[in-house]
Design goal:
Number of helices: 2
Number of strands: 6
Largest sheet: 6 strands, mixed
Distance between the termini: 43 Å
């Protein structure tokens, strides 16, 4: 469950039109909009869970995204900071494979 106000920072936010250029999403509606667009654009998207690490301040989720950008799915790390059992902040870190797949040779 997301606590209000909630902030998510992800490189994917820059790919969706109408979202803040720095990759920050604010609020449930913005996050919902991002995922609706992503699932429409990549209907074969599949997540492979690698690990979940609990920390006093929240949770780290390590996963691989298949059928999106890179031919070989690299590891993605998402941090979820929580207060009172609710997510207050989420930051996504992409793998080098995923970042490199977005650049095309000139």
């Amino acid at each position: 469950m997301l606590r209000r106000p909630h902030v998510t920072r992800t490189p994917g936010a820059r790919l969706a039109r109408g979202l803040e250029r720095d990759g920050t999403l604010r609020g449930r509606d913005a996050i919902r909009h991002l995922y609706e667009r992503a699932l429409a654009r990549f209907p074969k998207l599949r997540f492979e869970l690698e690990d979940v690490i609990e920390r006093p301040s929240g949770v780290l989720v390590l996963h691989r995204k298949h059928n999106v950008f890179a031919a070989r799915a690299g590891l993605t790390v998402e941090t979820f900071e929580t207060t009172g059992g609710l997510v207050t902040r989420n930051v996504v870190y992409w793998s080098a494979e995923e970042v490199a797949a977005r650049f095309r040779p000139i």
